[in-house]
Model the fold of this input.
Amino acid sequence: MTESGIMNLPDQPNCNQAELVSETIPAGSEFYAGKSFEKTWVIRNTSPCSWNHQYNVVYYDGIGMGESTHRVFTENLPPDTAIHPGETTTLILNLRAPFAPGRHVGYWKLRDPSGFLFVPANYEQDSLLVDINVVGTIYSFIDNICQATWVLDGQLINCPDDEKPVSFVLDKFPHLEDGSTENEPGIRFLLSETDGSSLIASFPDIGIKKGDHLHLVTACAYDAPLCNLTFEVGYHSADGDGLLGTWNEISDGQMHTVDLDLSDLAGQAIQFVFLARSNGAIQGNLGFWFFPILLPY
Done:
C-alpha cells in the first residue's frame, strides 16, 4: 500500500510471449493451381502463463487459400489440455493453392483470449506468412473473359455486360448455392425469364497437349432458389466439333466439380464453347461458371 493509502496491484504477467521453432513451406514455394498443401508452424510458449483453448492462430489479411478463419492452439490435443511455459504446439493449416497464377500471400497472427494479436518475438515479419507462387496454369478463362465472343439469346453482347439486368459479370467473391463464399472469382450470369434462354461464350483457339485438363465448377447462385440450368462445354476445331460434357443444376446445395482429361484432343487447336441454358420460364435464374481453367493435370 502507498503512503496515500492506495493499494498497489501486482504487475500482470505478459502471456503473449512466443518463439517460432520451425515452419514448413518457405516463402516462394511453388504449387500447381488448386493443389492442396499443409502449412505448419511450431510455436514455443516462452511466457510465464499456460495457453488454453482460447488461444488461436487467426487469418488476418491477404489470401486465405481455403482455410477457416482460425485454428485453436490445442486443437489436436486432448480436451482441457494447456500449452505450459516452455512447451511447444504445432499449428497446421490445410490450404489450397489459388487458381490464378503468380504470387499469393496470406497473413496470419496469434490471438489471445482478449482478442489481442501478436507474433513470435523472433519472427522477422509482423504477421505469420503463407507465401507461395502458383505455376503451371495453361489458360485461365477468367483472366481472358473478354477474349470470348458472348451471345445472349442469339444476340451479340459486350464484355463485361454489367449494365444490364440480364447478362453476366465477373464476381470476385461468388456466393454459391451451398452457402459458401469463395475467394476465387467466377462468371455470374442471369438469364432471361423465357424457357430456353441461353448464354454462350466462344473462346479463341487454344493448343491442347497430352495430359491437359479442364477444371471448373457449375453452380446455382445462393440467392436463386428457383434456379434450373443446363451447363454445356463443347468445342470447335479444324477436325470438327464436339461436346465435352453436360451438367444440370438446381438449387439443392449440390454442385458439379468438373475435371475433364483433354488428352484425346492433343495436338489440336480448339475453341472452347461454354453454354448455359434455362430449363423453364424462371425468374431469377442465376448461376455460376466457377473458375474454369486449363491445367497440366
Remarks:
- The two ends are 72 Å apart (CA to CA).
- The chain has two domains: 18-135, 139-295.
